[in-house]
Amino acid sequence: MLDDLDDIHPLFHGAPTTTEFKKLRKRIVRETREAIETYGMVNRGDRWLVCLSGGKDSYTLLAVLHELKWRGLLPVDLLACNLDQGQPGFPATVLPEFLTKMGVPHRIEYQDTYSIVVDKVPQGRTYCALCSRLRRGNLYRIAREEGCSAVVLGHHRDDILETFFMNLFHGGRLATMPPKLVNEDGDLMVLRPLAFVAEQDCEKFARAMNYPIIPCDLCGSQEGLQRMQVKKLLDDWESRTPGRRNVMFRALQNVRPSHLADPAIFDFLSLAPGMAQPQQDDGLPPALR
Questions:
Q1: Which among 185, 194, 108 is positioned nearest to 149, based on CA atoms?
Q2: Among 154, 12, 137, 6, which residue's Cα sits nearest to residue 80?
Q3: How far apart are CA 257 and CA 264, in angstroms?
Q4: Where is this motif: PP-loop motif (predicted)?
Q5: What's the average model confidence in pLDDT over 96-101?
Q6: Binding residues for [4Fe-4S] cluster
Q7: Under DSSP, is residue 105 helix (H, G, I), strand (E, B) or coil?
Q8: Which of 54, 156, 187, 239 counts the most CB atoms within 10 A of its CB?
């Protein structure tokens, strides 16, 4: 059982014994395992670079992956990695001390990308895009140096939904963070095993475990971020209609190219009477079928 005290990874030592927490923990483990299996993330014997920012999401990712590995359900080698980007006031000792205490193999890398971001981004603009690119480039380099086949990120269901709506509202495209992709150079996988996990569950889990959470003061302190605006919009929808996020995420897994308008993914030019395919009209109002 997941809550047996004598067979858990040190990352779960001191876990609350309440029924509520046990259900939360089992749900996160189940949903993570489901995402890993659904998208075929595992090749036995691979090595994963598990990226740890010190936020609630990355702590949840680290814990659940080690739980699955501890139980023989994740046959890969895990290396935790934190990229210290030189933000003023970043508590540089927190993560190495935590990882050492928990017996988690890790690498701490210092690269002052903060100075680059502050220098290059015009005043009044947000740092996130450039910061993310610099961070990702360094993580790819570290993965190669450590012999890792995959860079594993802590993006959850809500991150994926928010990115979809940001692309819809501001990018003019239907796209989001996929649970699994190959990097541009074609030599590394990028995986998001928390793709089915709600942000609220990550928050509850990390807080209940009393992990030493480090906030992102570089971009999180900036007002008016597009992502924050989208988050507020989704929060409002969820408060008005509980379960709305789950429905929207299911839509990302249930795409009908013939009911969109992109000729690059559906051959509208060749479409003619007598060529109807099964379920092609699913989703249309009865009067239009």
A1: 185
A2: 154
A3: 10
A4: 53-58
A5: 96
A6: 128, 131, 219
A7: coil
A8: 156
Which of 192, 181, 242 is CA-nearest to residue 60?
Answer: 192
Query: Which residue do the tokens 């959850």 mark?
Result: 156
Helix (H, G, I), strand (E, B) or coil at 22: helix
Angle at the Cα of 187 from the Cα atoms of 157 and 99, rounded to 5 degrees: 55
**Span 109-149, pLDDT tens digits:** 999 888 888 888 887 777 777 888 899 999 999 999 999 99
Residues 134 and 173 sit within 8 Å (Cβ to Cβ): no
How distant, in Å, are the alpha carbons of 70, 75, 102 from that of 65?
A: 8, 10, 14
**Sheet with 180-182, side-by-side order of all strands:** 106-110, 77-84, 47-51, 150-152, 189-191, 180-182
Q: Quickly tell me which residue has 């876990």 as its tokens.
A: 15
How far is residue 236's CA from residue 233's CA, in Å, rounded to a whole number? Answer: 5
**What is the DSSP track for 128-185?**
HHHHHHHHHHHHHHHHHHTT-SEEE----HHHHHHHHHHIIIIISS-----SEEE-TT
- Contact between residue 61 and residue 152 where contact means Cβ atoms under 8 Å apart: yes
Only one residue has tokens 């109002």, namely 285
Rounded to whole angstroms, the Cα distance separating 226 from 249 reads 20
- Is the pLDDT at 279 greater than 50? The verdict is yes
Strands 106-110 and 189-191: unpaired
Would you place residue 284 in the very low, low, confident or very high pLDDT band (cuts 50, 70, 90)? very low
pLDDT of residue 286: 46
The CA-based angle 156-160-163, given to 5 degrees, is: 140
Q: Residue 281 pLDDT more than 70? A: no
